[in-house]
Amino acid sequence: MRYTTPLREIKGVGPKLSLQLESAGLKTVMDLVQFLPRAYEDYTKVMRIMDLQPGKVVVQGKITAVQSQYVRRGLHITKAVLEDNSGKVPLVWFNQPYRASHLKDDREWVVAGEFTFSNRRYQLMNPSLRASDEIIESGEAIIPIYRQVAGIKTAKLRSLIEEIRPLIIMYPELLPDSFIKKGQFMSYAEALTALHFPEDMAQIEQARKRVAFQELVELLLAAELNKSDNAALESWQIPFDKAGTKQFIMGLPFALTGDQRRAAWDIIQNFEAGEPMNRLLQGDVGSGKTIVAGIGAYMAARAGYQTALLAPTELLARQHAETLVRLLEPHHVSVGLLIGSMNKKSKEELKTHIADGSIAITVGTHALIQDTVRFHKLGFVVIDEQHRFGVIQRQKILQKSLRRDNSATEGLDSPKHVMPHLLAMTATPIPRSLQLTMYGELEISILQEKPAGRKEIKTRVVSPISRAGLVADVDKEIAIGRQVYVVCPLIEDDVSEIKQASQMQNSRDVKSVTAEYERLKKTAFRHRRIGLLHGKMKAEEKETIMRQFAAHELDILVSTTVVEVGVDVPNATVMIIEGAERYGLAQLHQLRGRVGRSDHQSYCYLVPTEAKQTASQRLKEVAKSSDGFYLAEKDLEMRGPGEIYGRMQSGQINLQIANLADTKSILAVKRAIAWARDNGVNLLQYEAMKRRVDTYRRLTTLN
């Protein structure tokens, strides 16, 4: 047996089990070795029933009063009572009918589970249990709990891992001995063995530290190597035109914030350095990222270089183009817009002007990435909401920068690739810990100040049963000339779509955007002008609706999260988010940022699906804070990096133990990597480690 051996060849794995394992991403022995337990049941810490406190507990005693019944179709409940010499505690299992026959013999049981208040009393919900004599006989007092694999019992999974135990024990080391000794870590093989076959909790803790350290080393080393490679590339040297830039900034219809000035200066210094800029501009909603990018584009144009601004949607591309035209064309800097919905003739004309250099700044969507788009002298690339683009898409736009060198031997111009300067922009503030890991290759500029005159958005959670008061407040805003967004989770009341609604206990109550649009037209706001917007509409339809809303031909826009970015209607002052508990903190903050874009007082109402969900911690956090950076940290803590880093990459950043919110550990690993570099220790001397780091390099690079 080898690490590359398919699991279907392992003893005890038939065709059905093989498919079940494969659907969970477990295809080879290596996959199973790396499939680490998510938790442990420690049967050594038994408590008396009378001493139980809410939370995870372990108790021992005899089980009596076993009852088993189907309550309704699809729901079976098994109830029992556990007794020791100090008291009794109820036990409840859902959809585990086999428990009843299992519990009828007169044995001593050790029960582990969550002691919680439910149905007006404290009880143990869905506990696991083992016979006391079995624990003594096996010597296994600590049991690993693995992520559930559909259709496979935990016992079967553990037997398969037992089958490959020799390969776990002999797992090759990934880091040099000197590096491991300095950190006083156990070997990687010892760590994997301890996690799969633990002897005590102290051993598990040491093993988790080693694996977490390993995971962070791989991620941070990948970012550092990407950064080093980027610095070695050749780029355009764009000189700083001090007089021209000063004149441009003085001509703006508003004063720059201090953060905007600092970010612009960062870009100016990078342009002059001669190596490619690789900078992330993170600014909270409404902080003015486009003008900072515009200053860079203006400087590039003054020096004879072109700029490409890549946006994820046509709506956002149009928004940027309109802003840049307003700011730059008075200074004789031409701006073009290239999007998929343009007719063929217009596209071809624009491509000709881009290729001959007569268009200085081109704003576009994925249409900009096409092979038929060629630039005359591309020096600056701006990618907005960069996490919405894949690595290959980002690389394609960066590869459009060519320089023609005179060949001494052939007397002809030969194209040579030069890396353009890159500014990636995001409206989702990046937590400090992610800046050090997934964004470690980037220099970062932060916009936290909001433009002068902006008021804080008043945010509150509104129970669905208090909707009448909400309607009255919103109607008052409309009466004084303001506009309203209503955001709903689903597009239409389709059964298949509702079934997919993420873990809703009562999915029938999930609001669809079409149903809400019809309801508002017939009831509370039938006297108001209402529009409908969602992602399945044709581009022209969406553009028409947005133009109508921007021109105040509509009072209310009922929409999906398509309005999350790129919609700028200063007159809109109310945001109502239906089913608010379904969104992450970062997304709720983004949606809230569609209002509060003028000097008018704005409001955001978070309406959960059910009244009992009004107290959810996530919604409380959004209501109490308008600080996007604070909310980003909380989002990372609650949901992991996926919301912030982007769907594609985060799904493949497989950190099972390391905590990306743990800035202290991340800094410790950075120091360890620096020590290795300073002392000539090659962290990539083992091929297995090199492969793992290379995978992360491909996933995290912007180039």
Please, could you describe this protein's structure?
By secondary structure, the chain is an alpha/beta fold. Among the domains are: 39-145, OB fold (Dihydrolipoamide Acetyltransferase, E2P), CATH 2.40.50.140; 242-273 and 287-426, 3-Layer(aba) Sandwich (Rossmann fold); 458-625, P-loop containing nucleotide triphosphate hydrolases (Rossmann fold), CATH 3.40.50. The strands form five sheets. The protein has a seven-stranded parallel β-sheet with strand order 10-11-9-12-15-8-16, with helices on both faces. It starts with 14 loop residues before the first helix and ends with a helix. Mean pLDDT is 85; it is low at 406-414, 493-509 and 646-651.
Brief summary of the model shown:
Helix content is 39%, strand content 20%. The chain is α/β, with parallel strands linked by helices.
For the CA atoms, what is the radius of gyration?
30 Å
User: How are the strands ordered across the major sheet?
Assistant: 10-11-9-12-15-8-16
Could you tell me the strand content as a percent range? 15-25%
The name of the CATH topology of the domain at 242-273 and 287-426 is: Rossmann fold
CATH class of the domain at 242-273 and 287-426: Alpha Beta
Number of strands: 22
SS element count, helices: 27
What is the CATH architecture annotation of the domain at 242-273 and 287-426?
A: 3-Layer(aba) Sandwich
Approximate helicity band:
25-40%
Rounded to the nearest angstrom, the distance between the terminal CA atoms is 39 Å
For this structure, what is the CATH homologous superfamily of the domain at 242-273 and 287-426?
Answer: P-loop containing nucleotide triphosphate hydrolases
Structural class: alpha/beta
Question: What's the rounded overall pLDDT mean?
Answer: 85
Q: Which residues form runs of ≥5 with pLDDT under 50?
A: 406-414, 493-509, 646-651
Instruction: Report on the biggest sheet.
Output: 7 strands, parallel
Shape: globular
